[in-house]
Write a structure and sequence with these properties.
The chain has 3 helices and 7 strands. With 135 residues, it is of the alpha+beta class. It has a single domain (3-133), classed as Nuclear Transport Factor 2, Chain: A, CATH 3.10.450. Strands 1, 2, 3, 4, 5, 6 and 7 form a 7-stranded mixed sheet that branches. The chain is globular.
Length: 135
């Protein structure tokens, strides 16, 4: 399988994990140990990163119905590493009613090819904008 295509497949699983509130599907895009350097939260590294991301996703999906749209600008592969960057557009509809929240964030992901040939996110950064109410 072409490397760019394989990363796109993993990224699709990431998106669908959000859209189906499936925490483990979202996490399947990440390497066993990764670094999360996103805005609005402390940097998370190693095995601790997955535990904290799992917890925050579970809380998010309990409170909101999520719809993620991924806009990939480019994927550049160099050997067993790759860079992917673009936009995440996330709409969060409160499960208990209320106005949806829209978040558009820039992201940069560093991918690593695993021993089994799968591509996984090893470093993740996003620039979280202030949420706006959807009109």
């Amino acid at each position: 399988m072409d490397d760019v295509y394989a990363i796109n497949v993993a990224k699709s699983n990431y998106r669908e994990g959000f859209n189906t509130a499936d925490v483990e599907r979202v996490l399947s895009a990440f390497a066993p140990e990764f670094r999360d350097m996103s805005d609005a939260r402390p940097t998370r590294s190693g095995a601790d990163a997955a535990a904290k991301l799992r917890r925050s996703l579970a809380e998010l999906f309990a409170e909101y119905e999520a719809n993620l749209n991924v806009i990939i600008i480019a994927i550049s592969v160099c050997g067993s590493s790759a860079v992917d960057y673009g936009w995440h557009e996330l709409t969060l509809k409160p499960r208990n009613g209320g106005e949806p929240v829209y978040r558009r964030t820039r992201y940069l992901e560093l991918w690593s090819k695993q021993q089994n040939g799968d591509w996984r996110i090893s470093k993740f950064m996003d620039n979280q904008d202030v949420p706006d109410t959807v009109d």
